[in-house]
Structure formats: structure tokens, C-alpha cells
């Protein structure tokens, strides 16, 4: 009995050490070159530039702790502390391959990708997901009802590979013509009721009381391979998209995504064309 109590005590102590771990992979940048500042202010009127500590990120990807406390300078005035849990979307038996003229060959990916989602407490389910890989660091952070995006600061003069930006999406100075809506006169009243529940935050009813898992197979064409520079980089990026999407489905309809297969075409003879599907 004494041995059991000692073992429980050690396990509790070990768990407390894990949950108490605080990491700071992002460092606030205060000095911004004038030409970079001018370029950014043309597209957004509020942002925070951060540098990435890649040693911390590499340790995070390698050790993949189940839970971590992460401090992030979201704005110039505040540093937020996020209680995060690992959010796995890769199926244990996932196949990650390159599509070539000679058939599929395995990618050198080695699961160098990890996502973290904020720990939810009851009905409070903010959308906060952070994705880390050797190729991309990105995510979304919901803070006080406002959505912030984290991403690499690429394509701007005087921006280094370590430079990343955190900004509220509603402060972008770009107009989007895209709209998303549904017909309120839709004949299926049940669909309308469910939409109203989602809009009001009352998302879980009998239909969604059990956790559902959606298995996904993903393909990326040769054009995407060229854009991201390697099959591994393209794979890491698409996984970050599905990880964030999975968190939305998890929050709203209690459904998780599991990626079971990824193929990135590395040859121009892929089965896809550049013309619109119609």
C-alpha cells in the first residue's frame, strides 16, 4: 500500500512538472525598419512582429509534450499565457508519399509536425490552434472575442526568415468580395434550426453528443509542390490547415479530423489541370 501511495505521489509530481512547463518561442520585436513598417501599414493597421526561437520550436517538435503553457506577445501591450494541449490529426498508420512518374515513394517527413489547441473548459471554447513544423509556424488565437492570425512575414523587404507577424484579422485593409451564407427560406427546417444553434453557441444536441472521427485522404498537385518548394513543406502546410479546421469542427459539432493519407505530386504529369472545374 505504501508503494502504491509513493507511486501516485511521484506520478502527481511528474504531472505537475509537465503542466507547469512554460515556454516562450516568440520574442517581441520593438525595432521595425521604416520601409518594412511602411509596407505593413499599407495592408494592416494593427500588428505585432515577433521573432521565433527555433531551438525552442525544435525541442517542441521533437519532444511533443502532451501539455504546455505558452506565453505569446499577441499585442504590443500584452503577453498572453495559453494553456495548450497537443492536438493530433495524423492517424497512427498514416501514409505520407510523393507522387512521381515512377509511382509513389515515401516522404522524408518523419512526423516533424505538431499542433496545439487551447484547453477547453465547459462551454468556453475559444478557437486557438498553433501549428509547428520544420517548415511553417502558423495558427489562430481567439482573445476577448477577437481572432488573431500568426504567420511568417514573407514577401516584405527587410523581413528575415525568423520574422513572424500576429495581427487581428478584422484590421486588414483589404476588401474581400467572398461571402458565405445560406438561404433562410431553405425547405429543410431542421437545417435552419441547427444553423441557429451554431450561431447562438448551443452546438451540442443529440446528433453531436458522441465524438465523431472523419478520416481524410489529402492530395496536393504539382503546382502546390512548386509553390512550397518541397513535398515535406507542402505536407506540413496542408496539415496545419486541417488541424485548424478540425478544431472548428471539434468545437461546433464534436467531430475530429484524422489524416490517413497524404500525397504530394512532384511531377507535372499529375492527374490535375490548371483549368477551373466549372
Lay out the secondary structure.
Blueprint: H1 2-20, E1 22-23, E2 26-28, H2 34-41, E3 48-52, H3 54-63, E4 67-72, E5 80-86, E6 90-100, E7 103-106, E8 113-118, E9 129-133, E10 137-143, E11 146-152, E12 163-168, H4 189-200, E13 212-220, H5 222-228, H6 231-253, E14 255-265
Parallel strand pairs: 1-4, 6-14, 13-14
Antiparallel strand pairs: 2-3, 3-12, 4-5, 5-8, 6-7, 8-9, 9-10, 10-11, 11-12
Kindly summarize this structure in a few lines.
It contains six helices and 14 strands.
Properties at a glance:
278 residues, four-stranded mixed β-sheet, alpha+beta, ten-stranded mixed β-sheet, globular
Task: Give an overview in words.
It is a single chain. The relative contact order is 0.16. Helix 5 crosses helix 6. With 278 residues, this protein is α+β, with helices and mostly antiparallel strands. A hairpin with a 7-residue loop joins strand 4 and strand 5. The longest helix has 23 residues. A 10-stranded mixed beta sheet has the order 1-4-5-8-9-10-11-12-3-2, sandwiched between helices. Helices cover 28% and strands 32% of the residues.
Summarize the amount of helix as a percent range.
25-40%
The N- to C-terminal Cα distance equals 70 Å
Q: What's the arrangement of strands in the largest beta sheet?
A: 1-4-5-8-9-10-11-12-3-2
Rg over alpha carbons: 21 Å
Strand/helix succession: HEEHEHEEEEEEEEEHEHHE
Q: Would you tell me the structural class of the helices and strands? A: alpha+beta
Number of strands: 14
- Compute the average pLDDT: 83
- Could you name the ranges where pLDDT drops below 50 across 5 or more consecutive residues? 11-18
Residue fraction in strands? 25-35%
Q: How is the biggest beta sheet arranged?
A: 10 strands, mixed
Shape: globular
The number of helical runs is 6
Amino acid at each position: 500500500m505504501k508503494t502504491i501511495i509513493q507511486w501516485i505521489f511521484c506520478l502527481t509530481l511528474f504531472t505537475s512538472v509537465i503542466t507547469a512547463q512554460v515556454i516562450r518561442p516568440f520574442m517581441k520585436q520593438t525595432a521595425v525598419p521604416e520601409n518594412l513598417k511602411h509596407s505593413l501599414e499599407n495592408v494592416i493597421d494593427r500588428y505585432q512582429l515577433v521573432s521565433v526561437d527555433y531551438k525552442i520550436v525544435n525541442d517542441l517538435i521533437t519532444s511533443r509534450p502532451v501539455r504546455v503553457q505558452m506565453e505569446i506577445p499577441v499585442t504590443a501591450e500584452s503577453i498572453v499565457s495559453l494553456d495548450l494541449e497537443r492536438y493530433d490529426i495524423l492517424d497512427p498508420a498514416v501514409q505520407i508519399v510523393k507522387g512521381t512518374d515512377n509511382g509513389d515513394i515515401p516522404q522524408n517527413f518523419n512526423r516533424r509536425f505538431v499542433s496545439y489547441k487551447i484547453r477547453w473548459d465547459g462551454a468556453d471554447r475559444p478557437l486557438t490552434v498553433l501549428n509547428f513544423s520544420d517548415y511553417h509556424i502558423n495558427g489562430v488565437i481567439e482573445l476577448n472575442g477577437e481572432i488573431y492570425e500568426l504567420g511568417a512575414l514573407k514577401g516584405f523587404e527587410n523581413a528575415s526568415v525568423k520574422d513572424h507577424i500576429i495581427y487581428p484579422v478584422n484590421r486588414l485593409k483589404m476588401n474581400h468580395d467572398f461571402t458565405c451564407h445560406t438561404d433562410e427560406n431553405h425547405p429543410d427546417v431542421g437545417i435552419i434550426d441547427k444553423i441557429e444553434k451554431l450561431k447562438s453557441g448551443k452546438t451540442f444536441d443529440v446528433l453531436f453528443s458522441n465524438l465523431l472521427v472523419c478520416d481524410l485522404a489529402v492530395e496536393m498537385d504539382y503546382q502546390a509542390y512548386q509553390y512550397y518548394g518541397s513535398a515535406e513543406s507542402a505536407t506540413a502546410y496542408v496539415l496545419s490547415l486541417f488541424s485548424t479546421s478540425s478544431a472548428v469542427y471539434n468545437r461546433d459539432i464534436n467531430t475530429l479530423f484524422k489524416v490517413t493519407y497524404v500525397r504530394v505530386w512532384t511531377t507535372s504529369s499529375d492527374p490535375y489541370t490548371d483549368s477551373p472545374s466549372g
